[in-house]
Design brief:
This protein has one domain. The chain contains 2 helices and no strands. α1 packs antiparallel against α2.
Length: about 90
């Protein structure tokens, strides 16, 4: 059974308008998914290791992106706030 692709009906808001808490939650969720995928890979039987490894790599990539977005966006937001305060 294959999942239907998700279609966005509205464009996503610019990242600077996304609450830092939402970005932190996305990062935490991606980190948990990555840890789960790693555990599944470690416990996979011989015939399932390749697929489990691919799933782990994909989850780790998503975690990296979520981390980068959070850190970049919050750093840029802090800089903008500092510029306005000066």
């Amino acid at each position: 059974m294959s999942a239907e692709p998700t279609t966005l009906t509205e464009p996503a808001p610019p990242l600077e308008r996304v609450a830092p808490e939402a970005l932190a939650d996305a990062w935490a969720s991606a980190r948990a998914d990555s840890a789960d995928a790693y555990r599944r890979w470690c416990g996979a039987i011989r015939g399932e290791r390749r697929g489990a490894y691919a799933a782990y790599l994909a989850a780790a990539d998503r975690e990296d992106v979520a981390q980068d977005v959070f850190l970049t966006t919050t750093r840029d937001t802090e800089r903008a706030a500092d510029d306005h305060a000066s």
